[in-house]
Design goal:
It is built from ten helices and eleven strands. With 298 residues, it is an alpha/beta fold. The longest helix is centred in the first third of the chain and has 23 residues. The structure holds NADP nicotinamide-adenine-dinucleotide phosphate. The site of NADP nicotinamide-adenine-dinucleotide phosphate has 27 residues, from α10.
Length: 298
């Protein structure tokens, strides 16, 4: 008898977290008269980026976080972008600043990120937050890795001593996740495009996290029987019947026969990313005012 892996329902877990955040925001307002605020900065009019910003604004509204949207022309220069960031750094209504990346060609993302007040850096990309994360100190943790950790903890209550393998080492996903897993006392392997025989490494892992950006690249032979599999990938493919659909980096149907628990795509990591952004904005609002944090560390 083949038993199928348990599904890790990111949508439901994100909904529960979002509800918790809404409660904490209401309490912050009632007790301290504070409404957390998120400022989004979009440079240019990339349609996909516009949709992301709209979704973030909607998610804020649903939990009572105020949002301020700033849209700059695609040809805005570095000096003007940094001037806006500095204004937002000084703006008392703003607890979180999110710069939609990538910025248009010619603008150095890193220089813009470095201009952020680290206390308002809700994406967790400022060098100070990166350094704190790697030092195991309190920081604002990048949203997608944070979402992965929360999903992992929903399955694996005790992470100490767990063997984890990460596929991918991007600045946005793989690297911060490696830091989080180390802090959670996991034993971590990171494989990437230069790794020799990555499957031999990932097959040893109790927890496998794929962040590659290649549709269904992780097949059953990469997975240890009973492992917890978290699929960060979001890839658009055309199905056998000719209709476009979203798939992860893991071959879901095959993986489900061998894994112990697995995230679906969509409905896994995706919803957790946006919930984590709300979580960071709430935490930033509390920390900036030295108020107690209503949610535990990741
Ligand atoms: P990325 O910056 O392109 O990084 C991909 C990583 O995978 C790189 O480290 C690369 O290695 C590695 N890699 C590529 N081919 C490989 C192979 N054959 N074997 C082993 N490793 C390989 O991508 P990313 O930004 O981390 O995103 C990864 C995926 O997650 C994408 O599908 C993206 O759409 C998705 N994503 C989802 C969310 C969400 O909210 N759910 C958020 C962010 C990203 P090298 O370093 O050697 O090049």
């Amino acid at each position: 008898v083949v038993t199928q892996a348990r599904l890790i329902d990111g949508k439901a877990i994100a909904a529960a977290l979002t509800q918790q955040i809404a409660g904490a925001v209401a309490e912050l307002q009632a007790r301290h008269g504070v409404t957390p605020g998120l400022a989004t900065v979009l440079v240019g009019d990339d349609p996909a980026s516009r949709i992301y910003i709209r979704n973030k604004t909607k998610a804020c509204a649903a939990v009572g976080i105020a949002s301020l949207e700033f849209t700059l022309a695609g040809d805005t220069g570095m000096r003007e972008i940094v001037a806006l960031i500095e204004r937002l750094n000084a703006d008392e209504r703003v607890d979180g600043i999110l710069v939609q990346l990538p910025l248009p060609g010619g603008i150095d993302d890193r220089q813009v990120i470095a201009a952020l007040d680290p206390a308002k850096d809700v994406d967790g990309f400022h060098p100070l937050n990166v350094g704190r994360l790697w030092s195991g100190e309190p920081s604002l943790v990048p949203c997608t890795p944070q979402g992965c950790m929360l999903l992992l903890r929903s399955v694996v209550a005790q992470t100490a001593g767990v063997t984890a393998a990460l596929i991918g080492r991007s600045v946005v996903v793989g690297r911060p996740l490696a830091a989080l897993l180390i802090t959670a006392d996991c034993t971590v392997s990171v494989v990437h495009s230069k790794t020799r025989d990555p499957a031999a490494i990932t097959r040893q892992a109790d927890v496998l996290i794929a962040a590659i950006g290649r549709p269904q690249a992780v097949t059953a032979d990469w997975i240890k029987p009973g492992a917890t599999v978290i699929d960060v990938g979001i890839n658009r493919i055309v199905g056998r019947d000719g209709t476009p659909r979203l798939v992860g980096d893991v071959d879901f149907d095959a993986a489900r026969e061998i894994a112990g628990a697995i995230t679906p795509v969509p409905g896994g990591v995706g919803p957790m990313t946006i919930a984590s952004l709300l979580r960071n904005t709430l935490l930033a609002a509390c920390r900036r005012r030295s108020l107690p944090e209503p949610l535990p560390p990741v």
